[in-house]
Design a protein that fits this description.
Elements (H helix, E strand, L loop, with lengths): L7 H12 L3 E5 L14 H11 L6 E3 L4 E6 L1 E2 L9 E2 L2 E2 L3 E6 L2 E3 L8 E5 L10 E8 L2 E6 L25 H12 L5
Parallel strand pairs: 1-11
Antiparallel strand pairs: 2-8, 3-7, 4-9, 5-6, 9-10, 10-11
């Protein structure tokens, strides 16, 4: 959940890291989540990064704020190790305050929406969790930082890790394993 824009050199270093086999977990937040009051929120920072790399990952955050949402509209792929991995089967995720994403397969044919807002169709919009590949590397993206918090974050975060309305712990652990190439 970055709060300051990446320099051009930093953006190119992140792109090179992923291209050379690195795993990148992109965690955004909602529009207006400027934690340090410098005029930048994570949505703007990540979208600036995505622009700097010409949309190479096929992911872009929407400028919105989804609150108190249980999203169980999941891609039905039993072979997907992020959704059905070592740490359990993902049945949904929860958003406390976060942004959805739009994916663009014309920019990157390997981008995949895995979870959408419950009221949405399985398309390229209203995505709440996505994965992508670039070069030899992998990317996982979510638009709410509270989904990964286990109660140890600042007072602005919610304990999404243990929220019984979703399976955030399994989602993040399976995704991290996938990013580290410990799962197909």
């Amino acid at each position: 959940e970055p709060n300051n824009p990446f320099s051009d050199d930093e953006a190119q270093a992140i792109l090179a890291f992923v291209a050379n086999g690195g795993g990148l977990f992109v965690i955004g937040n909602h529009d207006g989540a400027d934690r340090d009051n410098d005029g930048y929120d994570p949505v703007e920072v990540w979208n600036g990064f995505f622009n700097a790399i010409d949309g190479a990952f096929g992911i872009r955050f929407d400028s919105n704020d989804i609150t108190d949402s249980r999203d169980n509209n999941i891609h039905d792929d039993i072979d997907n190790s992020v959704l059905h991995g070592t740490y359990g089967h993902v049945t949904g995720t929860t958003y406390f305050n976060g942004a959805t994403m739009t994916i663009t397969s014309t920019a990157n044919p390997d981008v995949r929406a895995l979870i959408w807002k419950s009221s949405s169709s399985h398309g390229s919009n209203a995505v709440t969790f996505a994965t992508s590949k670039y070069g030899s590397g992998r990317i996982a993206a979510i638009g709410d930082s509270s989904a990964a918090d286990a109660g140890s974050g600042s007072g602005q975060l919610q304990n999404g890790w243990d929220d019984s309305r979703g399976t955030n712990a399994a989602l993040f652990l399976n995704a991290t394993r996938w990013l580290c190439r410990e799962a197909p």
